[in-house]
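Margin note from the TA: students keep mixing up input and output lines. Inputs are the sequences; the output is the structure of the whole complex. Example:
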Amino acid sequence: MTRALPAFWLVFLLSIPLWLQDQYLLHILIITGIFIIAAMSLNLLLGYTGQLSLGHVAFFGIGAYASALTTLGFDIELFGFRVVHHTWPALVGLLVGMIVAGLSGYVIGRLSFKVRGAYFVIVSISFAEVTRLVALNWVELTQGPLALTNIPPYTLGFPGLGDYTLWNKTAYYYLVLALGLIAYVVISRLVGSRIGRAMIALKENETLASAVGIDVTRYLVLAAVVSAAMAGGAGSLYAHYLKIIDPDIFLFIYTVTMVIMVITGGKGTLAGPIVGGVIFGFLPVILRPFAAPAVQWILYGGLMIAIVFLLPQGIVPAIQRWITTRKPAGALLAGSSDPREGR
Amino acid sequence: MDQFLQHLLNAVMLGGTYALLGIGLTLIFGIMHVVNFAHGELYAFGAYTVYLVAAALGLNFFLALIVAVIAGALLGSLIEIALLRPMRGADIDTVMLVMIGAWIVMQNTELLVWGGVAKAIVTPFPETPLVIGPVSISWVRVFVLAAALLLIAGSYLLIHRTKLGKAMRATFQDADTAALMGVNIKGIFTATFAIGSALAAAAGALLGPVFLVTPTMGDLASLKAFAIVILGGLGNITGATIGGFILAFVEEIGAGYISSGYRDAMGFLIIIVVLLFKPTGLFARAERVG
């Protein structure tokens, strides 16, 4: 049964575009999927190393801008030199976006993980603010508030079959799903590996972890790089899907969206960001007819406080606990299942 | 040179209110170990209270300032009792999440009540600026600096000369021992948060008439307060006071000579430089508040 469940979910997710005719709902699913990838990347830092990145949207936005600029090309003057870049394929943009975001994750990690904790939170949130100011003020490169427009969609090349450009929503849905699955597998392999155990060890007891020889800063920076690159990839998906990005992509509310997704679903669990992501991806759709955006945000903020008070571990661990306490025979079942299940 | 003098003067005017923001945040962090993300919202709350009393109700401007500070203290104690008291003993990150939730709720409540359009507060001060040789300064800003300095001096007196201040300093050094000595820790925490909130509200009430009042004004105020506190060393009040003036100076010089678009990025640069070279803050971590 435990093995059938992921297969069932996969078939369900694959089948959605076949029976879902509503293009608006498909659009919501794509955006939700992109934010779930970003939330999973945040969860790697917040849930597994215990470091709260409140500037995660910076990596998301850097990925989006780097990818869009790689694809669109630019012509700027930098320190007296003229830098010209011609258009490259959108998929290269995705790669460049991830690399640039990963590099900025490295720099931020190096800078702030010497002191960690509250410092990392403040450095990351300030970093997001600065990236927003750069996107707004470096008009020559980013067009500032005029936004980067006409960002082309991805083109996939199949050997022997020719090229396929992702113009419609269905194709884009499958791309987001595929990349989401890759991100999920990467994170689950990472946290199940020696590196992941080291990260969890530092979260649980840093003094002990460093005493047994775990290089704290190195693992934290590694987590920051992977997390930032993944968020950058999600940003690239976002840019090429919407075809337009402006400096508002760096707004703090997007980071809050990711944090709420992770906290509500359950930080430090693999399924948490997905459960939280689906809830907060569709909640605006459900609430929209009744509540103005400001009212929705008041509800989200209140919900965040309520979750911390009532379900500090999040929804996924609460459900797991509920299932195990309900079935006394659960011990037998649990013994046969993969211990990593649902973590 | 004249331009530099003008920047310097502007920085001093701004620095007083920045110091208020920083002192409030550093007190809360030093004594309660709470990273208060709602700090900027209390700043915005102070500004909106002045707008409500002075502009919307048409009452006296100075009365509005006093109302804003008292309302800030009351809202602060409410937040402390409702959200922070039940969270005592929880780890710092969990409390941080609660404060982020409070931040979102407060900011969007402001947006809902007041709308997204910026509000201007008219003051009773003359429009013509005060001209001293090559530099000029508006009367409002002179008043803002005077009031801020008065409040800074008041905070020092409160912490160093009163029984409450003594209890706060004792709690800062060692909360458990202070409790054993008969200090009412719960009361001290509420008082600390109320005072910190009142100072933030005062900063907002003073700067509201200088700039415009918007629902998102608190975001940058929070970031700047964090920059000031990191600059001065977490929990260090003298550090926060000097840090406030340093940040204002760097911002003015940056906006004047580099690019005005990056004015608000200066705080971040300060954070980076401090973390690179002296992570404990420019002023070595104090063993006590003050």
